[in-house]
């Protein structure tokens, strides 16, 4: 994708008050991460003042949108949709696994599987599902 071509399909992550914390964690894990745009609820906004009304971040060249929902929902993230990361080194997969699994849930522990020499599938502490693969 060229820098002038906008990303047509973007993953949207809906949080209930933890968007900023999640974005901060995710951006700390990738060298080429940045906030592209962020708007926050003001004192008269529908959401808690200062919480994320809408944000777009870039992680390793992939844009994600994040919001703090103003409504509580009876649903959250599910592993049926996950963020798949091809890691280039063992240090990278180990570092990402340690950070993302802290306070989270292991779905497939870091290990060797028939399709990958080193792979893990987990839900982070926010409930977002990640698949980490050593390419």
From TrEMBL:
Domain spans labelled PhnB-like: 7-132
Coiled-coil zones: none
Gene3D superfamilies from the UniProt entry: 3.30.720.100, 3.30.720.110
InterPro entries (UniProt xref): 3_dmu_93_MTrfase, Glyas_Bleomycin-R_OHBP_Dase, PhnB-like
Pfam family, one: 3-dmu-9_3-mt
Superkingdom classification of source: Bacteria
SUPFAM superfamilies hit by this protein: Glyoxalase/Bleomycin resistance protein/Dihydroxybiphenyl dioxygenase (SSF54593)
Protein name as annotated: VOC family protein
Organism: Phytoactinopolyspora halophila
Upper classification of the organism: Bacteria, Bacillati, Actinomycetota, Actinomycetes, Jiangellales
């Amino acid at each position: 994708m060229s820098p002038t071509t906008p990303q047509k399909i973007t993953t949207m992550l809906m949080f209930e008050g933890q968007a900023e914390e999640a974005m901060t964690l995710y951006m700390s894990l990738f060298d080429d991460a940045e906030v592209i745009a962020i708007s926050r609820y003001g004192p008269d906004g529908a959401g808690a003042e200062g919480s994320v009304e809408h944000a777009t971040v870039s992680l390793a060249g992939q844009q994600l949108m994040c919001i703090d929902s103003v409504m509580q929902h009876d649903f959250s993230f599910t592993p049926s949709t996950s963020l798949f990361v091809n890691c280039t080194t063992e240090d990278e997969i180990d570092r990402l696994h340690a950070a993302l699994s802290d306070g989270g849930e292991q779905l497939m522990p870091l290990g060797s599987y028939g399709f990958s020499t080193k792979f893990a599938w987990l839900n982070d502490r926010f409930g977002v599902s990640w698949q980490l693969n050593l390419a």
